[in-house]
Amino acid sequence: MKLKLAIQKSGRLSEDSIKLLKDCGIDLRNVKDRLKTESDNFPLEVFFLRDDDIPQYVDDGVADIGFVGENVVYEKNKKVEVVEKLGFGKCRLSIGVKRNDEYINANYLVNKKIATSYPVIVEKFLKEKNIVAEIHEISGSVEIAPGIGLADAICDLVSSGSTLFMNGLKEVETILQSQAVLVKNKNLGDAQQKLLDKLLFRIQSVKKAKNNKYILLNAPNENLQQIISLLPGMKSPTVLPLATPGWSSVHSVLSENEFWDIIEQLKANGAQGILVVPIEKMII
Ligand code: PRT
Ligand code: ZN
Predict the structure, then answer these.
(1) pLDDT tens digits, residue range 66-90?
(2) Contact in structure between 3 and 192 (CB atoms under 8 Å)
(3) Which among 60, 74, 138, 173 has the fewest CB atoms less than 10 Å away?
(4) Which CATH code of 3.40.190.10, 1.10.287.630, 3.40.30.10, 2.60.40.10 fits the domain covering 3-89+179-209?
(5) Top mutation candidate among 157, 169, 179 for ligand 1, by most atoms within 8 Å of CB
């Protein structure tokens, strides 16, 4: 019995999906064939598909789980459950209008034509705002629509914003923040669910490790208590005496978002030789 996973065949999520599996210690055979493969060291079968088709395959049960962008999950509106955010493929689905147009709020869109590949999400957004506008569905190169007179506004994915900029558009409204997520079939059997739990445990360990750093530093003993109180550690920091009298080596784990704040306070308390190293896996 194997867990069947659908991932994007080729595109922005493909490499990161394979890398996440690798970081979870799951090796795949013949990734180059990009049709179907399996792992020798985890009961996993992988299907390579268009991202747009992944929610349907998971809903049908052809695949048990899938890695796919939240934007696709909400647009396709299939009966799948979002289980875990995966931390890659981050982008936002935004409204863009011509750079010189004055945009105060979403009422700008009243009776306008909006080009998008996301008609379902845009329609929901307009409905919530009580706005009547025309949605013009196109499947690609959405950003050129205003320039060629096909639409007044667009709704498309944005990451750096340079595509909007190059097409003379500005981003005026964010409808959805998106990233790759793990979705599952709503009626997974017990055996499949057990395998999924095993995979999720590994994914969460990899994510935690990415968000944390291992820190080593030398501390003068007179400030040791202050320095220890700044460092959470997994239980508490490790403290070892240095060969130089009056000094200790302190080891701990710091999360990315409090990192710089704490480093400054450590320095202010006389910490020296601060080393910060990445963590590969973190099991709590
Ligand atoms: O063939 P298949 O259907 O599988 O692939 P696809 O062409 O539909 O999708 P692909 O590979 O382009 O994107 C897959 C997923 O990556 C999307 O569904 C999102 O969840 C995620 N993602 C993250 C993005 C972007 N960032 C992104 N920037 N998808 C698309 N873009 C495009 C956007 O459409 C626009 O054209 O990049 C352009 C904007 O980028 P910036 O950096 O100029 O703002
Ligand atoms: Zn697609």
Answers:
(1) 999 999 999 999 999 999 999 999 9
(2) yes
(3) 60
(4) 3.40.190.10
(5) 157
